[in-house]
């Protein structure tokens, strides 16, 4: 553990509020704050104690040190702080003027303004947590749904990291033996038992694949589940969007082809954020502009995590539904079949449509806003079928992690192929080193300055 030069920043959201918190961390943080504080002598106070007093400007010519604000100062002594350095948190009134005055005084006393994510970066450098956990801090701050909160919290607690560290250590032990063989190349010795090495690599790949496969779910959890509403013109897509959002987001008209561009908004259902996307109706376009809208619809279907196929239960023919369902199923995307205008069809027509579909249909009336809660429950259930979402187990939400996991898996696959063809130990060691490199870069056991700068520059200033 080491202490760097003192840094300071506003730790709460900028803007006028009742209270603002300014954080100071680094060597001399307590001493420099004490020089501008009137109350108890901070340098003599125990860790994790709070003290009321005033912060003062530097004395003027007459020796008068004017008051900036009445504050509550909390002292955290190294290593029992977020950064494992000496830390002071100053709770002041949330005036922008007061905040700037305090930051100015802190810089006068020797602190510098913190860079984005510098507090968390110091916590990482001082061994408070690994790089996955550090990135989870940013995800936790940005979480806006129950699912994204749970995913970030799981990573912050180290569940994902522990899995990777165990796998990496097992691989390191074998790589050391393979490297040892290189030192005895002329003696044709084998320290790393090939069958055991193969089994280990297979076991690691089996552990990696669920993590790699979870990225699509994790990305949806982090950024919202892209849910595209598709169907023929006048099926009621825009009416449904407006009803779910409880506002007039999309233009509703009896004229086919009214929606010509993509309309998006967000809806939270049972702690999951859905990015609802209303699209142009799927049909043969009548003009160039509508054709562009339909092409965008098809692109959104390809990008979606969930497709809601909405059809007009009153006017659709049985063969039309069958054809439409074939197209939706061929897209390979998870989908939900929703029948609109339930109030305008009889039981015979409804049963016939359900028979043709061969699966359950969620029946609603978008115009009358009936059965919308059933639709919301079905949307939530469709997402929650993923075991990771239900159990809170490790889910990959970070594209950087996904890229390194994929590269690790590819390197291990090459190494296994090399075993099959009896490659020399130096070639085998090369692929194993690549796998170790990528696993190490995920958790931060292997880092570069550029990598750290890229990661922490995305944090807010006070974190």
List the topology elements.
Layout: E1 7-10, E2 17-25, H1 29-34, E3 37-38, E4 49-56, E5 67-76, E6 87-94, H2 96-108, E7 112-113, H3 118-125, H4 131-142, H5 146-156, H6 159-183, H7 194-213, H8 215-223, E8 225-230, H9 237-245, E9 263-269, E10 272-278, H10 288-303, E11 306-312, H11 318-330, E12 335-340, H12 347-357, E13 362-363, H13 372-384, H14 387-391, H15 399-420, H16 425-443, H17 449-456
Helix pairs in contact: 4-5, 6-7, 6-16, 7-15, 11-12, 15-16
Subunit structure: Homodimer. Heterotetramer of two MnmE and two MnmG subunits.
GO molecular function, one term: metal ion binding
Subcellular location: Cytoplasm
Radius of gyration: 30 Å
Topology pattern, helix = H, strand = E: EEHEEEEHEHHHHHHEHEEHEHEHEHHHHH
Q: In CATH's first tier, which class of the largest domain applies?
A: Alpha Beta
Instruction: Tell me the structural class.
Output: alpha/beta
The count of strands amounts to 13
Proportion of residues in extended strands: 15-25%
Strand order of the largest sheet: 3-4-5-6-2-1-7
What name is given to the CATH topology of the largest domain?
Answer: Rossmann fold
Count of helical regions: 17
Q: What is the general shape?
A: flat
Give me the CATH architecture of the largest domain, please: 3-Layer(aba) Sandwich
Instruction: Name the CATH homologous superfamily of the largest domain.
Output: P-loop containing nucleotide triphosphate hydrolases
Estimated helix fraction = 40-55%
The end-to-end distance, rounded to whole angstroms, is: 19 Å
Poorly predicted regions = 250-261, 283-287, 387-392
- Main beta-sheet strand count, sense and barrel state: 7 strands, mixed
Tally of individual domains = 3
Q: Overall mean pLDDT score?
A: 82
């Amino acid at each position: 553990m080491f202490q760097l030069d003192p840094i300071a920043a506003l730790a709460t959201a900028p803007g006028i509020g009742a209270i603002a918190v300014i954080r100071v961390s680094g060597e001399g943080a307590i001493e420099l704050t004490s020089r501008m504080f009137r109350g108890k002598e901070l340098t003599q106070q125990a860790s994790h104690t709070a003290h009321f007093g005033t912060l003062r400007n530097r004395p003027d010519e007459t020796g008068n040190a004017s008051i900036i604000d009445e504050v509550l100062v909390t002292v955290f002594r190294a290593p029992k702080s977020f950064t494992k350095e000496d830390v002071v948190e100053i709770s002041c009134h949330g005036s922008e003027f007061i905040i700037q005055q305090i930051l100015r005084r802190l810089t006068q006393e020797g602190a510098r303004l913190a860079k984005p994510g510098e507090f968390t970066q110091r916590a990482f450098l001082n061994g408070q947590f690994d790089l996955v956990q550090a990135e989870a801090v940013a995800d936790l701050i940005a979480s806006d749904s129950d699912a994204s909160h749970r995913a970030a919290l799981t990573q912050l607690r180290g569940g994902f990291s522990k899995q990777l560290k165990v796998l990496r250590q097992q691989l390191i032990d074998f790589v050391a033996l393979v490297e040892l063989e290189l030192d005895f190349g002329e003696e044709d010795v084998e320290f790393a038992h090939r069958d055991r090495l193969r089994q280990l690599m297979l076991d690691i790949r089996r552990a990696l694949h669920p993590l790699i496969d979870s990225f699509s779910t994790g990305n949806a959890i982090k950024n919202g589940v892209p849910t595209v509403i598709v169907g023929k013109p006048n099926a009621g897509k825009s009416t449904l969007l407006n009803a779910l959002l409880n506002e007039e987001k999309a233009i509703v008209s009896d004229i086919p082809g009214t929606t010509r561009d993509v309309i998006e908004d967000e809806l939270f259902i049972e702690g999951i954020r859905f990015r609802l996307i209303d699209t142009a109706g799927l049909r043969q376009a009548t003009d160039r502009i509508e054709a562009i809208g339909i092409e965008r619809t098809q692109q959104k279907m390809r990008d979606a995590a969930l497709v809601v196929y909405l059809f007009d239960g009153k006017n659709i023919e049985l063969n039309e539904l069958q054809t439409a369902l074939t197209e939706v199923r061929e897209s390979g995307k998870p989908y939900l079949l929703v029948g609109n205008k339930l109030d305008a069809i009889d039981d015979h027509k409804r049963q016939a449509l359900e028979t043709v579909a061969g699966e359950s249909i969620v029946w609603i009336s978008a115009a009358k806003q009936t059965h919308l809660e059933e639709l919301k429950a079905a949307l939530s259930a469709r997402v929650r079928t993923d075991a990771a979402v239900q159990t809170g187990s490790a889910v990959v939400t970070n594209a950087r992690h996904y890229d390194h996991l994929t590269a690790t898996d590819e390197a291990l696959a090459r190494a296994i192929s090399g075993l099959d063809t009896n490659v020399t130990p130096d070639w085998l060691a090369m692929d194993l080193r690549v796998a170790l490199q990528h696993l190490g870069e995920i958790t931060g056991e292997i880092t570069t300055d550029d990598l750290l700068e890229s990661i922490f520059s995305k944090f807010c200033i006070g974190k």
